[in-house]
Amino acid sequence: MSDYRFLAIHRDEGVAEVILRKPPMNTLDPALYQELMRVSEELEADERTRAVVFTSALERVFIAGADIKQMAEYRFEREPLERKIELVHATFTRVERLSKPTVAAITGHALGGGCEFALALDFRFMSKGAPRIGLPEVKLGILPGGGGTQRLPRLIGRMRAAELIMTGELLDAERAEAIGLITRACEPERTREEALEFARRLAAQAPLAVRAIKRCLIESAATDLETGLAIEKRYCLETLLSEDAREGIAAFLEKRSPHWRGR
Questions:
Q1: Secondary element (H or E) of residue 19
Q2: Containing domain of residue 177, as a range?
Q3: Is residue 260, in this structure, part of any structural domain at all?
């Protein structure tokens, strides 16, 4: 198991909880991107982990995005800026493509890159009250560079995404839930536990089927219907030919709980 400076991992009942602790604001920088890449590889290889929850150890913030003071010291030249954008894209795409389902437990602000990181996860549980989520980059004269202009419209539609990105509006949990930006708005004292409970439900499903469903959804997202159906057929066949499919059918007929093997 790898040692991390900004992350801690707790494993229980097939769920890995990844806890971010980078005071004071969990700001994103190359060191944290590197650790997010490493933890993704570790969790991918861990057969015991069937679902992942990302949360924060800091009370008021999930991830605050980039450090604006550090941004003021950037070399504002094409090549170094291009490398920074490519690093963010590569990191969030790696997290997004984890074969296990991923859940964000958002108990504090998820702004800018923090919102974009949450968008790269499959599900988002967020505390009601003070926490806000959104992409305020336009107020700095820039645009979201961590996939926000691509993942947000795929999630909530182009018109609403354009409104949020162009105005930089920040949303509370109830408004975010109403437009489909988050999965569930939670009472603050319940957010983490509800996210973990949901992850345990996911971890209890047939792992091969869950992985195939996630790959099917991701790979077909930007395709036409015909291509998407071909992708669906490939993964449907993969699951139908698996031991888990035979076990699931047998368990149903025998009125017992299935014993998934992940193959």
A1: strand 15-20
A2: 7-203
A3: no
Domains identified in the chain, total number: 2
Question: Which stretch of DSSP H or E encloses residue 99?
Answer: none
Q: How far is it, in rounded angstroms, from Cα 230 to Cα 89? A: 27
Q: Where are the alpha helices (DSSP H) in 65-157?
A: 68-71, 78-96, 113-119, 148-156
Q: Rounded distance, CA 104 to CA 19, Å? A: 10
| Exposure string for 96-122, b = 16+ CB within 10 A, e = fewer | bebebbbbbbbbbbbbbbbbbbbbbbb
| Residues with catalytic roles | 116, 137
| 61-63 vs 51-56, strand pairing mode | unpaired
Beta strands in 155-202 (DSSP E): 170-171, 184-186
| Residue type present at position 186 | C
Identify whether 259 is part of a domain: no
Pick the residue with more confidence: 103 or 74? Answer: 103
Is 103 a residue whose pLDDT tops 90?
A: yes
CA distances from 4 to 24, 32, 36, 107 (A): 17, 9, 10, 22
Instruction: Provide φ and ψ at 51, rounded to 5°.
Output: -155, 155
173 shares a domain with 161: yes
pLDDT of res. 261: 85
Q: pTM to 2 decimals? A: 0.93
Query: Looking at the domain assignment, is residue 1 inside a domain?
Result: no
Measured distance CA(97)–CA(170) in Å, rounded: 27
Do 199 and 217 reside in the same domain of the chain?
no
2 in a structural domain: no
pLDDT band at residue 204 under the 50/70/90 scheme: very high
Alpha carbons 218 and 226: distance in angstroms, whole number: 15
> Looking at the structure, do residues 221 and 95 belong to the same domain, yes or no?
no
